[in-house]
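Obj.: predict assembly geometry.
Materials: sequence records (below).
Method: joint structure prediction, all chains together.
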Amino acid sequence: MSFELAPFATLTALREALCAKHVSAAELARFYLRRIAADEANCFITLCEEQAQAQARQADAEIARNGQRDLLGLPIAHKDVFCTNGVRTTCASKMLANFVAPYDAAVVANLKAAGAITLGKTNMDEFAMGSSNETSHFGAVANPWDAKRVPGGSSGGAAAAVAAGLAPAATGTDTGGSIRQPAAFCGVSGLKPTYGRVSRFGLVAFASSLDQGGPIARSAADLRLMLRYMEGHDRRDSTSACAVATPAEGVPEALTIGIPTQYWANLNADIAAALEAAATLLERLGHRRQEITLPHTEFAIPAYYVISAAEASTNLSRYDGVRYGHRAAEPASLDDLYSRSRSEGFGAEVKRRILTGTYTLSVGYYEAYYKKAQRLRRLIRQDFLDAFQNVDLILTPATPTPAFERGQHREPTTMYKQDVFTIPASLAGLPALAVPCGFAGHLPVGMQLIGPHFAEDRLLTLAETFQRETDWHLRTP
Amino acid sequence: MDQHWESVIGLEVHVQLKTRSKIFSGAATDFGAAPNAQACGVDIALPGVLPVLNAAVVRMAVLFGLAVQGRIAKRCRFDRKNYFYPDLPKGYQISQLDEPIVSGGHLDIGTEDGARRRIDLTRAHLEEDAGKSLHEAYEGYTGIDLNRAGTPLLEIVSEPQLRTPAEAARYFRTLHALVRYLDICDGDLSQGSMRCDANVSIRRPGDEFGERTEIKNLNSFRFLEKAVRFEIARQIDILEAGARVERETLLYDAERDETRPMRGKELSDDYRYFPDPDLLPVEVTEAMLEEARCAMPELPATKRRRYADELGLADYDAGWLVADPDVAAYFEDVAAASGLPKAAANWVMGEVAAAQRQDGTDAAHIPVPAAQLGRLLQRIADQTISGKIAKTLFELLWKEGGDVDSLIERRGLKQMSDADELAAVVAQVLASHPAQVDQYRAGRTKVLGFFVGQVMKETRGKANPRQVNQLLRDALA
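Observations (raw structure tokens):
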């Protein structure tokens, strides 16, 4: 047999190897499970060893019968924010450290139905609140490119796992950049779909109007493959879009790519250079570049932190120690049960956001904060809609800096600024992806492509073209 | 009540909508199931679950809105009302704050002097019910039953236009009849299907509104009336003693017939309302309005006018009959079967109602089919049986069932109208009671009743009383 198991193979390559019977699903699962067991970066919270092996045996039996399911036998990892039937779902919080959901999230069920095998649940910022994976109750995750540095967040474990060759692909969620930023920090590809494209059913809520599941993988082609089995209308999610099955739209040969001037101010020099090179390459491939302006960009971060904290403050009210999750020992009263269960169960960042959100929704502050933030959100969205009158896509850096060191951003607001380039598209509900486009020293740099609503195909096609011409995505730590 | 004080009463009535499943989940809404047997993942607020609006509740709210001639919002939304309580699993109740589905409208109620009075409605909005806390059953613990959590409610708010406890009770009754006619609520007060909160204040006539108190959770017409009466008296005592009424929430203790301040539950200074991001705005289309108009049954006010105008019933009788849709339906069937609406009204209000009271039978379960009662009325009208025999026969029909005509035949209940036969009996009775005959002839004509009784006894009640009277007078003349 000529095939050799390689940790950095793409899903597409693994699928061919499985079909050609160069490798069995059981061998694949074992290979990755062994790598995960040896992982020192803390990418996983829970390993699904037995379940994965059982699924792999079934997949092999099906392959032997010429089973055709698209993801049959392919091992993947789920961010620990997706509920998995019978396997604990912690959201990296002490609050849910022992919580086992009795059902599968829509994303988990869809991928399972396509034949994918679940290796385990990846580490993340607690309740997806963070940009560095440092807020996890289960400990920080190391960036595979530099163990002193963070992998980004909140889907830090997922991005690091794919970058480190612990899984060929993983699910993530993105509220303000939680897929794109860690993908950029770890040198892998990540897609945040249009809000409503992927069902939120079973995704433990952080900020309902922003949360969106999406894939992290080693190539744009793999993102496309994953998305096909993550997306779809789901009547259990009222915000799920009805017609999401966008067939390849036949992307025009020459695209007009918008470059928003606001995103270039004070940019890290290495990132600016990598972006400039990427833009030049795209021009050489026949696309046109056009400077655009998104005038309300500067309001994106404050608007985002008001809205997301407001939603989070009530989404997290259900964790009260009454029905499941962490419960304070021997409560003296009902109020004591609530306040101690929540004080003990939530970490500092989660508490900060609950308090912020509670404050901004309070009588007397609602108009000044929440309502105003919603107005800004509409303006930011309108900026994009106006821009897309003239351009097909928008190219921006994914992050203002490469991966920073653990403990570097102790001040919450400097941490919040990490998401400056990813938040605007989140507020507008737009699809956006991050793919590697160079290096800043030894650290990967990512670029972000933002498209009009439901234009995932256009984004992916351009990213695929870019990855045929470059090898940034093939680099490994 | 003291003439120098005027009371101001406004009611908030929670109507439990008669749907098969809950407002935001697929769990059943049946009453009386084992605790928590009817609570699904959404109802217990597992992490990751999402609400999905039950379309039936919108249909019901629209029907109500049309019936009270309110404004139906073309677009309305749901808000989160945030507070902590163990029987509120999400930590918030989904309700409607700024954009209720129905605004305005009115309800016409009867007054003590038989006139009609129009009470304006402020609004009617949709919301979910909470679960139940069971404080008594567990020593040192509180049991939580979430079967009721998520049960759909239509909260109907009146303007503070009610002026007496009796008027408040009549408004509640009128609303009760209306929602039963609309078939949007089973109207079972004992099971909590309609619960009422009363806002009560007093003032000198012509003054501004006084400070109000709110009496929560009144679940019977009588308790509402008594609680409001007690509360008005209490407020008068306070003001006349020179003190101030405190704004507070009260509970009514039926056993002691008094109101008491409520502790703990559902009290918050700030519910931090904001639009629920998990639910889309509700659109009420012209087609939905048209569908509701087509489904609109004849309402009590219209029915009442028809009974008076077309069937010639007295206004009081018409009002009595329409108060309960099942009674009205039964009456209409009996009237149609007999062709004798007045007799039908008398019997339904008399014999039928008495039998119902005796057996505790509700109008939906009257054991005598309307067709049989109709036949009975016809047999009285055509003098086949006497009124007295008819009552006996009705008792028989109530207890044992059967067919009117065959019972008359089999039991020989047919009225004796043969003049010769009756004359013979009359002659015999007079012959056996010479002393009474003498009394009669001496002018004590009351004795006639005694003779009628004797004839009836002889004929086992079958004699036609009018004929007997005539024959006796003739014989004694």
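Conclusions so far: The first strand of chain B starts at residue 6 and ends at 16.
To do: check interface contacts against the pulldown list.
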